[in-house]
Design brief:
With about 325 residues, the chain is of the alpha+beta class. It has ten helices and twelve strands. The strands form four sheets. The chain has a five-stranded mixed beta sheet, with helices on both faces. Strands 5-12-11 form a three-stranded mixed beta sheet, with no helix packed on it. The chain has a two-stranded antiparallel ribbon with strand order 1-4. Helix 4 crosses helix 5 and helix 8 crosses helix 9.
Length: about 325
């Protein structure tokens, strides 16, 4: 890896004494930024709400922070945050006009911030028990590459002929002041439903999930979805991200003043399909979780095992209108 790129996973360095993005020493451990930006927490009243971590514990949204140098924040993070804030608060049309890379950088910074805090908590817990902390090679591979891609914020990085992510954006008829956030750290998948839109990003799949769902997306991408329809789309994408069985590999090439990243072919030398087989029962379990607000249980969802319940399409393949979707159950 070129010397000017920073890889905290080489020495497993996740202290608050170094900037998360550059690794440069900080003047104080108070030199931090919020993982969930202040504007988002203020707009959706998240300051006193909690988020569940991998170890089943809860922490406040406002307590999730990243060590970040003031210079990096002022030059790279804050301008991105300002642009995202303006677009998100304006709604779907403004978000659609954003450069997709900026949405990836924003979502990637947020999800990496959660990962960073998870790693710190895991390290502290293991050290308290007199044990060393271990991270699987697969997760280390994914997390380190996500961090590499994030350095497109502050480094002249070019993605050569590919995008490292799949991005899905839909117009959604959300209730006023709606805030629905999900992530799946193992697959690096992110979703957010606010204002009049819903956003899903698979952060490390080189566009594979977008291609996997292309037929579905082509049928609904211009529609205004009911929230239950968007959550159904999320369930499909989160599940396919679980079925995605490759660890993308890259070639990193410094050329002149730029750093080019080239993706190796996902199929590689393996004859195995890029996605494992879709199982409707497992998908139904995922969908049940996404549909909790509407009260549907697994037995209802897979009553017909070959045709799980859907509010996007009938069994005959006809689109279901948002007006036919159910309200939340009390």
């Amino acid at each position: 890896m070129p010397a000017n790129l920073y890889n905290p996973f080489e020495r497993f360095s996740f202290s608050n004494r170094n900037c998360f993005l550059t690794g440069q020493p900080l003047t104080s451990e108070e030199e931090k930024i919020q993982v969930f930006p202040t504007w988002l927490m203020t707009r959706y009243h998240l300051e006193d709400k909690v988020i569940k971590l991998l170890d089943e514990s809860y922490t406040g949204y406002k307590d999730l922070k990243l060590p970040c140098s003031s210079a990096v924040n002022e030059q790279y993070i804050a301008p991105l945050e300002s642009e995202i804030e303006t677009a998100f608060l304006a709604g779907y049309d403004a978000v659609k006009e954003l450069e997709p890379l900026k949405l990836f950088q924003w979502a990637g910074k947020l999800l990496y911030g959660i990962i960073f805090n998870e790693l710190q908590a895991g390290i502290r817990q293991q050290h308290a028990q007199g044990e060393s902390f271990h991270l699987s090679e697969g997760l280390k591979h994914k997390f380190s590459h996500l961090h590499l891609m994030l350095q497109s914020l502050n480094q002249p990085i070019e993605f050569d002929g590919f995008s490292p992510y799949s991005l899905f954006l839909f117009k959604v008829d959300n209730p006023e002041n709606e805030f629905s956030y999900r992530d799946e750290i193992n697959t690096l998948t992110f979703s957010l439903r606010i204002q009049n839109f819903g956003l899903v990003i698979c952060l490390q799949d080189n566009g594979a999930n977008r291609r996997y769902h292309q037929e579905l997306i082509s049928k609904i991408e211009n529609d205004t979805l009911h929230p239950i329809q968007f959550e159904e789309v999320c369930a499909k994408i989160f599940y396919s991200a679980f079925l995605f069985n490759r660890l993308p590999e890259y070639e990193i090439m410094p050329i002149g003043n730029e750093i080019f990243i080239e993706a190796n072919a996902l199929r590689g030398t393996s004859g195995r399909p890029v996605f494992d087989d879709w199982q409707n029962k497992t998908y139904g379990q995922v969908l049940e979780n996404f549909w909790k607000r509407w009260g549907f249980i697994l037995l209802e969802i897979i009553k017909d095992p070959e045709n799980p319940m859907s509010f996007l399409f009938t069994k005959d393949g006809y689109k279901i209108g948002a007006e036919a979707c159910p309200p939340e159950r009390q």
